[in-house]
């Protein structure tokens, strides 16, 4: 069984053959290169996992070995490099260490010396990879340390998340900014059959069309000014896994059309390329916009909407699940206290009351920012009201409605409100109201409720 793949770059044919024979006898897979240019082309065109270590001579005819090292490290920052040098060029070897080489050996070298260096480099690389995996596991979006709730309202959302995770359907996560849409997307991935593959995310609103397209689809060298190397996009990186498209409602019509092709055809063409690449990706999209309204008003493609909205997960704002404010605040307090090594035993009752009375327009993200600030400014062993920037911002009592109105008006307004909150999804509206779909249709007709979210005369439904 092959242990690892070694790339050898040396202009001396005898050295290449000697090393190739030695490494193959030790069950390594070997590729050899006579000049730096061909090596760099190989690194540029391959994938991240197809080479485990590079053995590089510092004296090359076509390109200085140090320059080859610098470029190789730009293409593959984590690839271990062992440099070879003649006795009289030790300074070059030391310089190579400064630019990221793992170690160097001087020619001529005994078999045991070079094999020992290779084994040590591979062992260190393995430890570093395992460390990165452990860190990703600890920081993954669905970690029990990150999803905090006690409310029944959010428990329903989380149970639905775990249920739909087992399918392979695309999911649309709706909710205000800061409600935790990426956490839910991560929970979908890490509780799905795709959990062993990658979970990647991109904020579609933060990038221009050109940059978003390049990040998603990748590009080949020379595709545009500045494209000096071939770059894989997130679609290729997420193959077999899950891609989270945050703020999908802000994507332009041109990018929408290209995304639709990926979802329908399961392939894509990198920028500047002519050949399509096949991918198998589960998409989780999120937005704080009413996509049904965006479809109706022509700003979002109807066919893409239905492709992404196979299952909808609607996240409630923090003000609608006040029971979660205290456990979330305590979680963030412990998190940031650990980070700055400060001893805090809790939040005072007065501070908790202040947190509960605030409406949190920025939702969980705003609460986290408030608690980070509170931990930094706290001087005692408790978070006190003085360090919370919320004084004078408590929620005003809800206005009293003294109108004397008929019961049917109350019912009509309630049905309209639930329809809006579900994006005019009739089945979900009927389920929330506790009535049958047939009864809902009858009441919509009876009260002449305008279906603002309908498309081509038919209410949105899945």
From TrEMBL:
Q: Which residues carry this modification: 4-aspartylphosphate?
A: 57
Query: Which Gene3D superfamilies would you find in this protein's record?
Result: 1.10.8.60, 3.40.50.2300, Homeodomain-like, P-loop containing nucleotide triphosphate hydrolases
Source domain of life: Bacteria
Chief location category: cytoplasm
Q: CDD domains, from UniProt?
A: AAA
Q: Show where the Response regulatory domain sits.
A: 5-122
**Cited Pfam families:** AAA_lid_14, HTH_8, Response_reg, Sigma54_activat
Which SMART domains does this one have?
AAA, REC
Concerning InterPro entries, the annotation shows: AAA+_ATPase, AAA_lid_NorR, CheY-like_superfamily, Homeodomain-like_sf, HTH_Fis, P-loop_NTPase, Sig_transdc_resp-reg_receiver, Sigma_54_int
Q: Where does the record place the Sigma-54 factor interaction domain? A: 147-376
- Give the UniProt subcellular location, in the record's own words: Cytoplasm
Provide this UniProt record's keywords sorted from A to Z: Activator, ATP-binding, Cytoplasm, DNA-binding, Nitrogen fixation, Nucleotide-binding, Phosphoprotein, Repressor, Transcription, Transcription regulation, Two-component regulatory system
For this entry, the protein name equals DNA-binding transcriptional regulator NtrC
Which taxonomic lineage is given here? Bacteria, Pseudomonadati, Thermodesulfobacteriota, Desulfuromonadia, Geobacterales
């Amino acid at each position: 069984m092959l242990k690892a793949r070694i790339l050898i770059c040396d202009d001396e044919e005898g050295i290449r053959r000697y090393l190739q024979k030695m490494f193959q006898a030790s069950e390594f897979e070997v590729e050899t290169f006579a000049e730096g240019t061909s090596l760099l082309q190989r690194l540029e065109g391959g994938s991240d996992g197809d080479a485990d270590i590079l053995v590089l001579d510092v004296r090359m005819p076509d390109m200085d070995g140090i320059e080859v090292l610098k470029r190789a490290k730009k293409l593959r920052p984590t690839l271990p490099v062992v440099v070879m040098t003649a006795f009289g060029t030790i300074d070059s070897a030391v310089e190579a260490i400064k630019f990221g080489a793992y170690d160097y050996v001087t020619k001529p070298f005994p078999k045991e010396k070079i094999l020992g260096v290779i084994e040590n480099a591979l062992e260190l690389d393995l430890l570093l990879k395992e460390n990165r995996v452990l860190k990703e596991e600890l920081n993954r979006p669905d970690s029990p340390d990150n999803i905090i709730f006690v409310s029944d309202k959010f428990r329903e959302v989380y149970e639905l998340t775990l249920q739909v995770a087992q399918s392979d359907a695309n999911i649309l996560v709706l909710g205000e900014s800061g409600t935790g849409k990426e956490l839910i997307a991560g929970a979908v991935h890490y509780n799905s059959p795709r959990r062993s593959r990658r979970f990647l995310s991109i904020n579609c609103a933060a990038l221009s069309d050109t940059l978003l397209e390049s990040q998603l689809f990748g590009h080949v060298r020379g595709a545009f000014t500045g494209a000096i190397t071939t770059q894989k996009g997130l679609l290729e990186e997420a193959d077999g896994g899950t891609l989270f498209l945050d703020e999908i409602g802000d994507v332009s019509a041109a990018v929408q059309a290209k995304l639709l092709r990926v979802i329908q055809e399961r392939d894509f063409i990198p920028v500047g390329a002519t050949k399509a690449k096949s991918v198998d990706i589960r998409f989780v999209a999120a937005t704080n916009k009413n996509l049904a309204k965006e479809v109706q008003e022509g700003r979002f493609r109807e066919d893409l909407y239905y492709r992404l909205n196979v299952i909808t997960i609607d996240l409630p704002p923090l003000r609608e699940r006040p029971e979660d404010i205290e456990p979330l605040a305590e979680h963030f307090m412990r998190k940031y206290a650990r980070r700055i090594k400060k001893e805090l035993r809790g939040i005072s009752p007065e501070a908790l009351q202040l947190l509960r009375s605030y409406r949190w327009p920025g939702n969980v993200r705003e609460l986290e920012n408030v608690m980070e600030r509170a931990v930094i400014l706290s001087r005692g062993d408790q978070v006190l009201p003085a360090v919370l920037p919320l004084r004078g911002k408590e929620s005003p009592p809800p206005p009293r409605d003294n109108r004397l109105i008929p019961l049917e008006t109350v019912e009509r307004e309630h049905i309209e409100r639930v329809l809006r909150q579900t994006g005019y999804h009739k089945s979900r509206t009927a389920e929330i109201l506790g009535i049958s779909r047939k009864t809902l249709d009858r009441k919509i007709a009876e009260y002449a409720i305008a279906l603002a979210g309908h498309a081509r005369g038919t209410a949105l439904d899945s």
